[in-house]
Design goal:
heterodimer, A: mainly alpha, Serine Threonine Protein Phosphatase 5, Tetratricopeptide repeat, DNA Cyclobutane Dipyrimidine Photolyase, subunit A, domain 3, 3 domains, about 50% helix, B: alpha/beta, Rossmann fold, 2 domains, about 45% helix
Chain lengths: ~260, ~150
């Protein structure tokens, strides 16, 4: 048993202290703090971050008007209902619906987890990829862990995850699909990796979303191609074909390449 | 007057919730649970984020690293607190662990009120769930006091 300090001269001193105190428990890599501070956000900051109308238009874009408040929601510092209330007060029910729908996804995943805690780490259903679960690798390849895959955009998203602890939802889907379908790694390995890093890492939303991408909690596997990444992230992320060779293909070609043994 | 110790949980670090549900004057403690951290392999980013949230709470929090069972047992031995409380986690795995420890150490648990009432019906797909709960979510009359 150890009592920890509550007095620090600055944020860097806290980081240094935690590196020393938790040295034996921390993963070997990525021992830096997130740029996102866990101090309670001000009411003004929360209000600024909630732009329901812009959210409805731009949420799928890497630089879209997402609130980025999910880490504070995860720690219970802000309630989802409070965010919904602000959105409703700003723009009314119709314009706030997409934003509130997104908040309700979190409640839905919690509902599913409470109903099926057995499926948090087990395949809820078989893969619909044509491959049996045992054919998927159990661990993440080193090039993924090091953000050194052949694809610049994927490396960019991995850096977001491991350096900041925050990743845009669309990028989470790209990364999950890359891990499971392009590299054929079990979704469980990816889900555990996300929970290690994401400040908003919530097992219900995280694991069932991975299962949805993998097709073990949904009707078909989710995949993407470079054209799609370029559409939503191309102004910020390197989406050149020559630097993303595994992703530069049509959906038809990718389906044949990734799911060629699928029966449907 | 009964003295109370509240064992905070990582999913409920809300100043308003603590003020609402915890007895005035209660001692607040937080335990960085070694078994849990080893299981989930939290990066420093996550640990620091939680730590900063704890430091920013208006009431001082005694922060520990160790096994919750040992820490709660030691407090029972050495302190004069008569009542122990904790929050019921949402994470099913953490919930099981916390409730097992709470049961073993006579710690009462509090369940913060949910936004969406618990559904007895089981939903496998989001939009079926959404169609049932959206009226509640979009109805300003159901808003909390926040």
């Amino acid at each position: 048993m150890q009592i920890l300090s509550s007095q620090f001269s600055d944020r860097a001193a806290l980081t240094q202290y935690l590196q020393a105190q938790f040295n034996d428990l921390l993963p070997k890599t990525h021992r830096q703090a997130s740029p996102v501070d866990g101090s309670n956000p001000t009411a003004q900051f929360i209000d600024q971050q909630i732009q329901p109308a812009a959210y409805a238009r731009t949420r799928n874009f890497y630089q879209g008007a997402v609130s980025q408040l999910s880490p504070f929601v995860r720690q219970g510092m802000i309630e989802r209902r409070h965010l919904a209330n602000i959105a409703l007060a700003k723009v009314g029910a119709k314009a706030a619906e997409k934003f509130i729908q997104e908040l309700l996804w979190g409640e839905f995943w919690q509902h599913v987890a409470d109903q099926r805690p057995d499926a948090l780490w087990e395949d809820a259903e078989p893969y619909k990829t044509g491959f049996e679960a045992y054919t998927y690798k159990d661990t993440l390849p080193e090039d993924i862990l090091r953000a050194e895959t052949p694809n610049a955009c994927i490396n960019h998203f991995i850096q977001d995850l491991t350096v900041t602890g925050y990743l845009h939802n669309h990028a989470r889907m790209y990364l999950a699909a890359y891990v499971v379908h392009f590299r054929r790694v079990r979704w469980q390995a990816g889900a555990a990796w996300f929970l290690e890093h994401l400040l908003d890492g919530d097992i219900a939303a995280n694991n069932f979303s991975w299962q949805w991408v993998a097709s073990t909690f949904g009707g078909k596997p989710y995949i993407f191609n470079l054209e799609n990444v370029a559409k939503y992230c191309g102004d910020v992320v390197d989406c050149r074909p020559e630097t993303n060779p595994e992703l530069d293909a049509t959906y038809e070609v990718l389906h044949l390449r990734l799911f060629k043994r699928a029966t449907s | 007057m009964t003295t109370t110790c509240v064992w905070l949980q990582e999913e409920w670090l809300s100043a308003s919730l603590i003020a609402e549900l915890c007895p005035a004057g209660a001692t607040l403690i937080y335990i960085f649970d070694e078994t849990w951290l080893a299981q989930r392999r939290y990066s420093l980013k996550r640990i620091q984020f939680i730590y900063e949230a704890l430091l920013d709470l208006p009431e001082a929090v005694e922060i520990y690293r160790g096994e919750p069972s040992e820490i709660l047992h030691a407090r029972r031995q050495n302190k004069t607190e008569q009542r122990y409380l904790t929050f019921k986690p949402r994470d099913p795995e953490l919930r099981q662990r916390v409730l097992d420890i709470a049961h073993a150490h006579d710690v009462e648990h509090m369940t913060p009120p949910p936004w969406i009432p618990v559904q007895s019906q089981s939903f496998k797909r989001f939009f079926k769930f959404y169609n049932v709960v959206k009226r509640h979510a979009l109805d300003e009359a159901s808003r909390d006091k926040s």
